[in-house]
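Supplementary Note 3. Input sequence used for the single-chain structure prediction.
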Amino acid sequence: MKEVSAGGVVYRRNGDQTEVLLIRDRFGKVTFAKGKMEPGETPEQTALREIREETGLAGRLEGPLADVSYCYKTEQGEMVHKEVRYFLVRAEGGALRVQEEEIAGAAWYAPAAAWKLQRSEGYANNDGVLRQALARLGADPGEESRFPVWRPGDPLAPFIDHTLLKADARAADIARLCEEAVEHRFFSVCVNGGWVRRCRDWLTGTPVKVCAVVGFPLGAGATRAKAYEAAAAVEDGASEIDMVVAVGRLLDGDRETVERDIAAVVQAVQGGALVKAILETSLLPDALKVEACRIAEAAGVDFVKTSTGFGPGGATEADVRLLREAVSPHVGVKASGGVRDAATAMRLLQAGANRIGTSAGVAIVAGAAAPS
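The predicted structure, written as C-alpha cells, is reproduced below.
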C-alpha cells in the first residue's frame, strides 16, 4: 500500500535573525510538521493545513524541498510505502501552539542549533531536507562532526547509553532503568527488543532515547530475522539500533555476506533510527577490526561499536583509537563492555569514543566504581 503525506520546514525572520521551527513527535524525535493528504488536496495544500493544525501557524510556500520515502508496518501487519513531500514555508501569521494529541512540543531555533539538534535527535532521512532548507536560507551547516565529542570538564551522562540486557530483567528493573536515565540525563536506555515499547511509553516527553539490540549477543542469526527485528524495534519506538555483525562470516573473510547482513538492517529501519554495528573486537585481530569498520561504513551504519559485553573482552583504549582512525569523521564510535567507573569512561571518550554503553551509568556519574 502507498501513502502520501506532505509537510514543511517552517522558518521566520525575527529581526535580523532567521529561525527554524522544529517539532518533537510523540516518540521524542525531532522532526517537521507533516500529515496525510486528504481526498482532493494537493501536496501544497496538505503541507499548509498540517502546519496550521499541528503548530497554529499560517504560512506561505516558498518552493519544494527533498522528498523522503520509507516503509512501515501497520498494527495489522500490512506493509506501507510512505512518501513525504516537503516544502520550505515562511511563517506569516498565527501563534505557536502545539496539537498535543499529535506532537510533544515545538520551538524556534537558530539555523546552527536546528542543524545540531536534527543530527543528534532527528530522523536521519530528514538530514537532506533540513540541509536543503538551510542552504536556501543562506545558512548551509557545512560538514561538521555529526556526533558530540567529549571534552574534559563536560558531564559524562549525555554520552552514556544506560544499559540493561540481562535475560532475567523484569518490568520493575526496566522501569528503574528508565527512571535513572531521566534522573541522571543519560542519552538513552539500551534494552532488548521486547522492552522497547514499554520504555517508549515511560520515556515519552523526556529527552532520553530508546536503543534496542538486534541479533544479540551472537550476531549469528539469519539476515532477514535481524532486519525484521530492527524494523519491529523502530516501529515500537526505538531511535537507535545496536546490531551484532556476523562475526563468524567476518572471520571467514566473507566480506560480501557481512556487508549484506549489515545493509539489510540499515535498509530495514529506513532512516527511522541510527544503526550501530557491534564488531565484538576481542574476537578479531587488528587488521580485521579495521576491515570490519570499512565494511560497516560501506553498508551505511552511523556508528561502529566495540563489544556486546557478553563476549570474552570489552572496550579498550587501543581498540577505540583504532576504530576512530578506521572510519570517517561522520561515523561515530561507541565503547562498551567492562566500563565500570568514571576514569575508564573518560579514557575511552578521550581515545575517540562518542558514546559509552554501560550498565554502570549511575556509579559512573557518581564518581564511584560499580561492582563487577
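The chain has two domains: 2-136, 157-366. The radius of gyration is 21 Å.
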